[in-house]
Design a protein that fits this description.
- This is DUF4283 domain-containing protein.
- By secondary structure, this protein is mostly helical.
- The protein has a domain of about 55 residues.
- About 35% of the residues lie in helices and about 5% in strands.
- A two-stranded parallel sheet has the order 1-2.
- It is elongated.
């Protein structure tokens, strides 16, 4: 395991830290989690995950999961005239008044 003295510590401001993040991301084109995991082996950035996320949002324009819009339900199609016609309750119902008959063959 690495010692604390082996890491380079950076504040999350400055061009050098941004270049390091871009370089490590460019090697694998990975997510924030993977880029941060790779960087933690050599560097330690204060509030690093948030800073990496901010940098990757700027340089990776193709990731739509960060700029996704909420789902909007489309308009309903026009209704059939038969379904819209108003009728009285129970005007069109069907009843089965005959009991169930079983047909048994004796034999």
């Amino acid at each position: 395991m690495d010692r604390i003295e082996d890491f380079l510590y950076f504040i999350n401001k400055g061009k050098l830290v941004e270049l390091i993040v871009k370089h490590d991301h460019k090697l694998f084109h990975a997510s924030v989690h993977c880029t941060w995991s790779k960087m933690r082996r050599r560097y330690w950035i204060m509030d690093g995950r948030t800073y990496i996320k901010k940098i990757l949002r700027r340089i990776c324009k193709g990731y739509t999961m960060w700029v996704a819009t909420p789902f909007e339900q489309p308009d309903f199609p026009p209704r059939l005239a038969v379904r819209v016609v108003g009728t009285r309750p129970f005007e069109t119902i069907g009843l089965d008044l005959a009991p169930i008959f079983f047909n048994r063959d004796k034999g």
